[in-house]
Amino acid sequence: MIKKLLVANRGEIAVRIIRACREMGIRTIAIYSEADKNALHTKLADEAICIGPATSKKSYLDVKAILEAACLMGADSIHPGYGFLSENAKFAKRCEEIGIKFIGPKSEIIELLGNKVKAKQSMKKAGVPVVPGSDGVLKSKEEACRLAEQIKYPVMLKASAGGGGKGIRIVKSKNELEKEYDMVKQEAKISFNDDDIYLEKVIENPRHIEFQILADEHGNCIHLGERDCTIQRKNQKIIEETPSSVIDEKTREKMGQIAAKAAKEIGYTNAGTIEFLLDKDKNFYFMEMNTRIQVEHPITEMVTDLDLIKEQIKIASNEKLQYKQKDIKISGYSMEARINAENPAKNFMPCPGKITGLHLPGGNGIRVDTAIYSDYTIPPTYDSMIAKVIAHGKTRKEAIAKLKSAVAELVVEGIETNVEFILDILNNADFVTNNYDTSFIERTYNYGNK
Predict the structure, then answer these.
(1) Is 249 a member of any domain?
(2) What is the pLDDT of residue 449?
(3) What pLDDT is attached to residue 397?
(4) Which of 263, 399, 412 lies closest to 331, judged by CA?
(5) Which pairs count as long-range contacts for 421-429, CB under 8 Å and 24+ apart, including other chains?
(6) pTM exceeds 0.85 for this model
(7) Domains in the chain: how many in total?
(8) Any catalytic annotation for residue 292?
(9) How do strand 101-102 and strand 77-79 relate by DSSP bridges?
(10) Using alpha carbons only, how large is the chain's radius of gyration in Å?
(11) How far apart, in whole angstroms, are the C-alpha atoms of residue 113 and residue 121?
(12) Fewest CB within a 10 Å sphere: which of 4, 187, 190, 410?
């Protein structure tokens, strides 16, 4: 059994993990950078230790410093949260080597699925529909041009080790492809230290649908339904909802079965998410698998009444899943808005600074996941997300109404936020009537071209 867990993260996800551990009777250790000395997660954990200066590279991404802290403080496990080292196979392997339980899948699975080309090949082998494109890494610009002519433009060049929307270019002609090919390879090298790229057909006007997976270490695997993450800006999700209103029960069941079966066949364990693109004809294609807890996991918790962090810890403790697929019931609708410290009017410029006043919304069916408090100073060093507002209702219409009310009630003084932008989306007729795709924000607000 896990008794003392180190949280290798910061912000709201660190707070979320600490609270779950506290309910389970597990002691927690918070790590923090010099910039996070007064962060909420350091105050809530049983113990806290500084691991380096503000820059992520010298703190939250420093494997040696984190593992030394874990050993010094007597941790028997590490939860990586999301971002930072959560999908770093080398970090997971080092944990395995020194006998610290990594709350996530095995290192070799993280490595397999972290490479987009190998992940696509594995999913194809497991019977998952994949987007037409190169069978592996592109060997030359000429090969890319030949393949693009075969599957027809537009096509997408993507970094094999990519993530976070980096190393991606859509090209609509041979001239564009020849021009962008070297640029994508260069960006991939800079961002991921790996210049391998591959090519895929662009699925035009898609919806982004992902399935939440839970798999234990005894061969049991289930899915917890889907999340619709189509509202995005530059491949970064802004509003998520579950269930999706664009897929029928037959499609939902088929996608869920395929996702769970694929996870089981590749030997996946713990929580994970298989992401699909859904075209206008309701055909779906594998995009990627995230080997960690997702930012948007609360909406799944709201409709299933499960605690995914606790489930992760139980699986890591070698417990069997307590649920069969037939036990999973989806109740109502849930929606999440990401609140960021940024100014949408100034091309979403980050706005760190001191919070001089704060009011968090509440009420029936409302949840706020955050690590901010009044007089807290948001550092300029990290991601700009400062809170997640989550609403649960009996219908999609009710979930939207509750989320609008909650976001409108939120007050964060002293800094700029994207609250008004979120409210604009929630009031948009196309959003309300579910008439949108991944180009919604770029098409509606013209932000994508700034």
Answers:
(1) yes
(2) 44
(3) 98
(4) 399
(5) 421/344, 421/445, 422/238, 422/239, 422/337, 422/339, 425/231, 425/238, 425/239, 426/239, 426/337, 426/400
(6) yes
(7) 3
(8) yes
(9) parallel
(10) 21
(11) 10
(12) 190
Q: How far apart are CA 352 and CA 219, in angstroms?
A: 45
Nearest 5 degrees, angle CA 294-CA 229-CA 153? 120
183 shares a domain with 213? no
Same domain, 393 and 296: yes
| 254 and 160 inside one domain | no
In this structure, how many other beta carbons lie within 10 angstroms of the beta carbon of residue 140?
A: 9
Q: Give dist(CA 302, CA 205) in Å, integer.
A: 29
Dihedral sign (CA 90, 95, 96, 101): negative
Cis peptide before 129 (omega within 30 of 0): no
State how far the Cα of 388 lies from the Cα of 102, in Å rounded to an integer.
Answer: 26
The predicted structure's pLDDT at residue 448: 42
Helix (H) or strand (E) holding 27: strand 27-33
Q: What is the DSSP letter of 19?
A: H
Task: Please count the other Cβ atoms lying within 10 Å of the Cβ belonging to residue 307.
Answer: 17
In this prediction, residue 445 carries a pLDDT of 87
- Under 8 Å between Cβ of 361 and 409: yes
Question: In 3D, which of 449, 235, 238, 229 has the Cα closest to residue 347?
Answer: 449
3-state helix/strand/coil string of 355-397: CCEEECCCCCCEEEEECCCCCCEECCCCCCEEEEEEEEECCHH
Which of 201, 229, 256 is the last residue before a domain boundary? 201
Taking each helix axis from N to C end, the angle separating 116-125 and 107-114, rounded to the nearest 10 degrees, works out to: 100
The answer to whether 342 and 351 are in contact (CB under 8 A) is yes
Residue 394 one-letter amino acid: K
CA distance linking residue 14 with residue 291, whole number of Å = 17
3-state DSSP assignment of residue 276: strand
Question: How far is the first Cα of the chain from the last one, in angstroms, to the nearest whole number?
Answer: 51
Same domain, 290 and 427: yes
Output the pLDDT for position 235: 85
Q: Give me the half-sphere count of Cα atoms (radius 13 Å) on the Cβ side of residue 138.
A: 27
Quote the Cα angle for 150-151-154, to 5°. 120
Catalytic residue among 292, 338, 367, 396: 292
Q: Do the beta carbons of residue 168 and residue 162 sit within 8 Å?
A: yes
Residues of the chain with pLDDT under 50: 448-450
Select from 118, 113, 128, 106 the least CA-distant residue to 262.
Answer: 128
pLDDT reported for residue 260: 97
